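Example record

One chain of 265 residues, shown exactly as stored in the release files.
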Amino acid sequence: MRNNHEIDYKIYGEELQFVEIELDPNETAIAESGAFMMMDDQIEMQSIFGDGSQQQQQSGIFSKLVAAGKRLLTGESLFMTAFTNVGTGKRKVSFAAPYTGKIIAMDLQELGGRIIAQKDAFLCAAKGVSIGIHLQRRLGTGIFGGEGFIMEKIEGDGMAFMHAGGYVVERQLAPGELLRVDTGCVVAYTGAIDFDIELVKGVRNWIFGGEGLFFAVLRGPGKVWLQSLPISRLASKIVSYGVGRRKEEGSILGGLGNLLDGDGF
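Predicted structure tokens for this chain:
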């Protein structure tokens, strides 16, 4: 028996995906601002303060303000949007990914009721799912872990949907099993996973490796989701190619160089 709303869904697309959620009468889905794509008639849209979970509904105004302040720390809006089927039959609402990558469907009931995720990973969920913050307890992890001290904490027993860049790999780690990952490639992990950072060994690797000074270290038991293309990496590549003129542009040798590296004249 679930406490959160039970929703059916279907994910469309390959690299630029959207998720279509089917709502029974009086069922509700919640989403971050800007995720909405389209909806059927007789679905009512309403901005709500916080995530609309049972914990927030039962708390006082001060607790709600504190929770809202925590959401601001993650870079999210004070408000979320709730989409409720007010009709008599099934209705559908869709939410789109913000950039190229994959949408990950997570059944929180099957995942221990708690997921820790990078700050911008959450897309939408069934009403009743709580979206809060998770503070890294270790100083080194918070400073060098790629996501800072603050990550998102998604709790409940309903469906939640995350988005990640590039291709998404799901790994199940046995008790004590260790996985070293680029700090920006960690999308989410279940609550029992131990997350830490580790200094890359060797001065030569620090200077010439080009991979940063730290690994993210994930230790089981639990499940982790990894992305092949963090949005920060994609953005830095776009900036490096798109800002300003290349030094060799306008010369014969510059044109030849562009041709050789695939950019043409």
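Notes: Helices lie at 54-58, 61-73, 139-144, 203-208, 231-242, 252-260.
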